[in-house]
Amino acid sequence: MRLLNSEATDKERNTENDKIDEIYESGSVVAEKSGSRIHCLTVIGQIEGHYELGDGQKATKYEHIIPLLVSIEESDEVDGLLLVLNTMGGDVEAGLAIAEMVAGMKKPTVSLVLGGGHSIGVPLAVSAKKSFIVPSATMTIHPVRVSGTVIGVPQTYYYFERMQDRIINFITDHSAVSEKDFRAMLTRTDQIATDTGSLIDGNEAVRCGLIDECGSLSDALAELHRQIGQKNIR
After folding, report:
1. Distance separating alpha carbons of residues 83 and 92, to the nearest angstrom
2. Closest to 95 in 3D by CA, of 136, 46, 143
3. Which residue of the set 39, 118, 142, 174 is catalytic?
4. pTM here?
5. Cα(229)–Cα(83) distance, rounded to whole angstroms?
6. What is the pLDDT of residues 52-106, one digit of tens each?
7. For this structure, is 142 an active site residue?
8. Which of 122, 147, 185, 229 is spaced 20 to 30 A from 37 at the CA atom?
């Protein structure tokens, strides 16, 4: 009996070590309760695109996230996805690609904004089937920015306009905010120094229809378990 208990303890310890390694490597972990397995995926720092960020900067790499989302969607051992956001934004195309992946999943999905869901983090926040934000979190809404050499020709401005339209269309398609209200938030001049846009907190994000509800981790998990339960009934 002692041997069996020792083996069980070693197995539990190895399982916990595996979870810690998974969190360290990918910022994600699978948690199980009452027979439901939830994959918690975090998006933190900057969303890294085609170019690597410098040393010392926290980043979420889209080339890691995209295959992970495919694995979650196809896995029989995962029942739902909890997407936790605390991001300053980053590469527009990479962030939008991840958002499209989450929005296209059939499995139950819930997002939770903690700290910040800024810039291209906004489409990520609304990509889940239901979105939550804590009251103290903030979201920065601003037009598409670009760094580096810009050629001042009509084609360049047309490209920026099309990119902005893609982001706006995604956000309005996956939330209750109207296009008119969202464009108004993009063009405000009294909230962000040296730029246009809006900085809104959790309650404001819910009032304008951008996020579904104010809530904490327990609220997000309860909604995810509700979605899983409904899917199992079907």
Report:
1. 18
2. 46
3. 142
4. 0.84
5. 19
6. 777 778 888 888 999 999 999 999 999 999 999 999 999 999 999 999 999 999 9
7. yes
8. 122
